[in-house]
Structure formats: structure tokens, C-alpha cells
Specification:
Blueprint (H helix, E strand, L loop, with lengths): L7 H22 L12 E2 L15 H14 L3 E2 L8 H14 L1
Parallel strand pairs: 1-2
Helix pairs in contact: 2-3
Length: 100
């Protein structure tokens, strides 16, 4: 194979050995029998979601989305960028108070 000083068979067996080691590693760490105690939900809809083209949430939209996320049991909600404006600061503060 180009770039390898080994002959084809050596190159091939080396690649197979490396692949087997990776498979064994992932089978050990991603074994289906391993238990997961909990999953934490970290939502960025109100922050990153609003960065999408032609997307702008109103104050009421933000409150409604935050309430739905809170009802769903979302652990962390990134509510926006409070330093952007006074209105954004107020919205983030209200969301934090309502979902705390």
C-alpha cells in the first residue's frame, strides 16, 4: 500500500489488528449490559435555536417553551443571552424565576 514500507500482507494484518483492538475497546465500554443510572437533559433551544436563520422568539414564546421544557423535566435550560439587551435580560430572569 502506498506510504507503507511493509508488504501488502503485513499492512493488511496490521490494519486488522488495529481494527480488532478498536472493536474490543468499544465493546467493553459500550457494552449493552452496562447500566446507566440517569440521563441529564441539557436544552439549548432558547439560546442556539434562536440563532437559526429567520428565527426569533417573542417573550411569550420563550416563556411557553421554557414552561414546556420544565414540565418535561429538563435538567438545564439555556434561556438566552441576558447581556444582549434589557428585554433579553428580563426574559431570562423571568424564565429562571418561573422554572426554579
Amino acid at each position: 500500500m502506498p506510504g507503507y514500507p511493509l508488504d501488502w500482507l503485513q499492512w493488511y494484518t496490521t490494519r486488522i489488528r488495529r481494527l480488532r483492538r478498536r472493536i474490543e475497546f468499544f465493546q467493553g465500554t459500550l457494552d449493552s449490559s452496562s447500566e446507566i443510572d440517569e440521563a441529564r437533559i441539557f436544552d439549548t433551544t432558547l439560546r442556539d435555536g434562536e440563532q437559526s436563520p429567520r428565527t426569533s422568539f417573542s417573550y411569550d414564546d420563550k416563556r411557553e417553551i421554557a414552561a414546556i421544557l420544565d414540565d418535561m423535566g429538563t435538567h438545564v435550560v439555556e434561556a438566552g443571552f441576558p447581556v444582549n439587551s434589557d428585554a433579553e435580560f428580563e426574559a431570562v430572569s423571568d424564565i429562571a424565576d418561573a422554572t426554579a
